[in-house]
Design brief:
It is a single chain. The protein has 158 residues and is α+β, with helices and mostly antiparallel strands. The protein has one domain: 4-Layer Sandwich (S-adenosylmethionine decarboxylase). Helices cover 18% and strands 44% of the residues. It is built from 3 helices and 9 strands; from the N terminus they run E-H-H-E-E-E-E-H-E-E-E-E. It has a 7-stranded antiparallel sheet with strand order 2-3-4-5-1-6-7, covered by helices on one side. A two-stranded antiparallel ribbon has the order 8-9. A hairpin with a 2-residue loop joins strand 3 and strand 4. Helix 2 runs antiparallel to helix 3.
Length: 158
């Protein structure tokens, strides 16, 4: 039988969203205060419980940071010289909505292009007594720079 080994079992199942944002607003993604506030608000929109914050602005440009949440984390790395943002959102359990955080961040950073992969993690295999993950499909309606709304397949299920 596959059982937890600690005191008080937690839900291991979680959603991990790995995101590439392109053609973002350079002034926003290079501003430490704005990036930090946007990630805090995204965590709140996702119904996450914020525990810790750590952010750093690099010279001459770029910001990295993490919002540690009770459910895991939201992290960001920006390259303003390319208008590029690497975003990582991982939440465990059932109470959070990580896609809300992802969409909010993309909108506020004014990303023109989004490429995201969602991975369902912490899946128990009771036969092998191991944990697994699987990729899932994400679809989103988006409107960027006055273009018509279009459905974007952000990643392909393998």
């Amino acid at each position: 039988m596959f059982e937890g080994k600690g005191v008080g079992e937690m839900i291991t199942r979680g959603k991990h969203i790995i995101v590439e944002l392109s053609n973002c607003d350079v002034n926003i993604i290079n501003n430490l205060t704005e990036v930090k506030n946007i990630l805090i608000q995204a965590a709140l929109y996702a119904h996450a419980e914020i525990k810790e914050l750590a952010f750093h602005r690099f010279s001459p440009q770029g910001v990295s940071g993490v919002v540690v949440i009770a459910e895991s984390h939201i992290s960001v790395h920006t390259w303003p010289e390319y208008g590029y943002v690497a975003l990582d959102i991982y939440t465990c359990g059932n109470k959070t909505e990580p896609l809300k955080a992802c969409n909010y961040i993309a909108e506020i950073f004014k990303a023109e292009n989004i490429f995201a992969t969602e991975i369902e993690r912490g899946l128990r295999d009771p036969v092998k007594e191991t944990f697994l993950h699987k990729k899932v499909e994400i679809k989103e309606e988006t409107e960027r720079n006055g273009r018509e709304k279009e459905e974007i397949l952000m990643d392909v299920v393998s």
